[in-house]
Amino acid sequence: MNKNIKVHLLVNEVAGNGKAVKADKAILNILKEKEIPFDQQKSHYPSELTILAKRYADASIPKNNFLIVIGGDGSFNEALNGIKQSANPETPITYLPAGTGDDFVRGVGLTDDPKQLIDHLLTSPQLECVDCGYFCSNIPGKK
């Protein structure tokens, strides 16, 4: 068993018209093959990834644990919002794109290959800070 890392998966199975289900199966097979410990949570309704990611980040997870979001840009946005609302807003996150557009991945140059993502986490898991921005609505009480 590979005890160097543990992977936490947050999955939106409805993303990408089935693309997320395929990506999830692929990454699960890789994790099992490489004997990497993991856990998985799936969203069942809109904005649930925000709640799940916040709960994960609030738990002060060890540095050798990785949060991977599987879904589209909206799924990644939900999870990122949860982390930013948490007690630990600098919690690392990575993303396996499985949406219909995946504009964020094209913009920052992330891989959409599950094997390449896991291999990268095993061999060179360096963190890179990315400014995620912040939007304030002009509607009172909305951000």
From TrEMBL:
GO terms for cellular component: plasma membrane. The keyword Iron does not apply. Its cofactor is Mg(2+). Gene3D superfamilies: Probable inorganic polyphosphate/atp-NAD kinase, domain 1. InterPro entries: ATP-NAD_kinase_N (IPR017438), Diacylglycerol_kinase_cat_dom (IPR001206), Lipid_Phosphate_FormReg (IPR050187), NAD/diacylglycerol_kinase_sf (IPR016064). Residues 2-139 form the DAGKc domain. This is Diacylglycerol kinase catalytic domain protein.
